[in-house]
C-alpha cells in the first residue's frame, strides 16, 4: 500500500479547518487562515471554502455579511490580500434562497425571517455589502454569478493570493539589494559572427571570447555598435537580454514603476539611466559582462529618468547558471 503523503494530511487538516471556521465561527482563528471569504448568504462561501481546502490544502475561513451588522474585528487583522468578498446578482441569490430556505435564517435591520428570500431585502443587503467594500478597497471582490466553484477558485482567487518569493528573490530582498535579473539566451547570442579581433574587451579572461554584435547594426566598428546598443539606439543582440525581475529597492532608487521595467531590454534600462555625466565605457563594460557571462563591477554615474538628479551607483554583474551551465 502506498504510504499517505504529507500533502494528503495537509488537505485533511485544511478541510477540518474550513468546517470549524464556516459562517464566521471561531473568529479568533481567522489570523491563521490562508484565505478569508466574505459575502451575504447564498453566494457559495461554504462550497468554495471546502473545495479550496480539499483540492489545494489551504486553510479557508468564511464569514457572512449581514445587513446592518458589523464584521468580527479579527477580520481586520488578516492580511487584506487574503480577504475576498464574494458578490452575486440579486436574481441568482433570490433563486438560491427560495430553493434552499429551511430552518432559521439570519436577517439584519428591522427585517424578519420572512424577508430573507424576498428581492427587496436581497437588494438592500447587496447594497450594504457594496458600501462595505467601498470602505475597504484593499479586499478583492469576486463575482460568483454564472461560474463554477472550480473557476472561482482557480481563476478568481488563487492567482491573487500573495505569492511567496523564490529562495533567490527572498535572499536578495533580505539584503535590500537594488537589483534586476536579466535573461541571457545563449542560443540567440551564439548565432552571431565571431568577435572582431580588434575589439578592446573589458579586462577579464578572453581566452574563449563570445560572439560580437552583428555588423548589420551599423557603426564603424564593434565598439561603436556596442555604445549604440548601450544607449538604446538600435535593436539587436542586446535587445535580446530582457529584464525578468526588479527588486523594490531598484524601483525606489530610480523612480520608475516595476511594470515599466519588466521585460524590456537591458539596453533600454541602461538608456533610461544615462545622463550627461554618464561614462559610456561603464555601460559598455556592464553589457559585455552580461554578454560574456562574467562577473564584473563598475561604478556608474546615472541620472534618474524624467530629468531627475544624478546619483553614483556601484553595479555588480554576476551570472546565474542553470543545471546545464548555461
Automatic annotation (TrEMBL):
Keywords: Kinase, Nucleotide-binding, Serine/threonine-protein kinase, Transferase. Residues 202-223 are annotated as: Disordered. The keyword Nucleotidyltransferase does not apply. Pfam families: Kinase-PPPase (PF03618). GO terms for molecular function: ATP binding; protein serine/threonine kinase activity. This is Protein-serine/threonine phosphatase. It comes from Cryptomonas curvata. The lineage of its organism: Eukaryota, Cryptophyceae, Cryptomonadales, Cryptomonadaceae, Cryptomonas.
